[in-house]
Amino acid sequence: IENKTKKNTLFSSAVSDDWKASVTKNLDALVTSCVVVPCSFSHPGKALPSSKLRGIWHISNDKNQVIYNEDQTQILDPYKDRTKILGQLGQNDCTLEIADVKDHDNGPFCFRIEIVGAESQKFSFVGDCVDLKMQQIKLTQSRAAFEGKAFTVTCSVRHTCPSFRPKLSWSRGNADQIFEKHELISPGIWVMESVLTFVPEEKDDHSQLNCTAVFHGGKATTKTLHLYLKRAANYKNIIIPIVVLVVTAGVIGLVSSLIIKKYKYVNQIWNKNLDFLDIAQS
User: Fold this and answer.
1) What's the topology of domain 138-227?
2) Do strands 167-170 and 35-37 pair parallel, antiparallel, or not at all (unpaired)?
3) What burial class does residue 51 get, using C-beta atoms within 10 Å of its C-beta: 0-12 exposed, 13-18 middle, 19+ buried?
4) What span, in angstroms and rounded, lies between the C-alpha atoms of 124 and 122?
5) What backbone torsions phi and psi does residue 118 show, to the nearest 5 degrees?
6) Where are the chain's structural domains?
7) E strands within the chain?
């Protein structure tokens, strides 16, 4: 709260029991899309009409670095025509929207409120500011991809502007194979998901699967998943080699047995011939 006794202190964090603000402190944002920053405040005494309140958003603790003001001339050039308060200040709603998000829109952005006609009633909530983090799309798979078995992969992206949902598309698949959902996961943060289910074939091994997200403003980002298929265990693949091994071993054993028998037979004949020669010589 502004220090009323020291006129040279323009503002400080609003921490008293009188004026309070609640701002989501961390939000994901998408370049070229928009971001909505949930914000509310409270004050003592009776409700005040919006005409008696002036809402301002500025960068960090510098009230002169204005990104939103009813008076456009007070706004920094990079933010002109890109910011607006969505809520009604008379209803204690200071929600901010930033359109056409830029890479430099990181923040922190802080809310300030002034009571029109009361010079001493100015409050900056520099202890409750929002930081923006630029978000990218993600690809996640349920398990390893097996040839001939259903495979599921999810493409998802978080965003903070429900008026302009990102559009997700795949490099393969049809409408029957794709399921989409959009849900609020926390205050001011939504997630858009596209779930693709298909059965990989042998030709899909070492191929690429792409998911493309198109954001408000036409900017597109693509995420790639490299498919490496595994072969499922097959009884034929196990039994056939074993049978071949057993048969081979049997054949080798039979041949060995015949050779041994033939050797014994030849040896017996040779011994008999030797005995006959000995008798003849005697």
Assistant:
1) Immunoglobulin-like (2.60.40)
2) unpaired
3) exposed
4) 7
5) -125, 95
6) 20-135, 138-227
7) 20-23, 26-29, 35-37, 39-42, 53-59, 66-68, 83-85, 96-98, 109-115, 122-134, 138-141, 151-159, 167-170, 178-186, 189-198, 207-214, 220-227
- Looking at this protein, which amino acid is placed at residue 67? I
pLDDT in tens, 148-176: 999 999 999 888 777 788 899 999 989 89
Class of domain 20-135: mainly beta
Sign for the CA dihedral angle at 43, 45, 46, 49 comes to: negative
Per-residue exposure over 211-244, b if at least 16 CB sit within 10 Å of its own CB, e if not: bbbebbeeeebebebeeebeeeeeeeeeeeeeee
- What's the residue count for the chain? 282
Return the structure tokens found at 3: 């220090």
As a whole number of angstroms, the distance between CA 101 and CA 82 comes to 8
CA distances from residue 11 to 197, 205, 211, 274 in whole angstroms, order as listed: 56, 62, 47, 126
Structure tokens at 109: 């952005």
Strand order in the sheet with 96-98: 35-37, 96-98, 83-85
> Token match 């698949």: residue?
173
Burial bucket for residue 124 (CB in 10 Å: 0-12, 13-18, 19+): buried
Helix (H, G, I), strand (E, B) or coil at 44: coil
Task: Note the pLDDT tens digit of each residue in 238-279.
Answer: 566 666 666 666 667 665 666 666 666 656 665 665 555 555
Q: How many whole angstroms separate alpha carbon 268 and alpha carbon 255?
A: 20
Same fold, 20-135 and 138-227: yes
Q: What does each C-alpha distance from 145 to 107, 149, 155, 171, 233 come to in angstroms?
A: 42, 8, 16, 17, 13
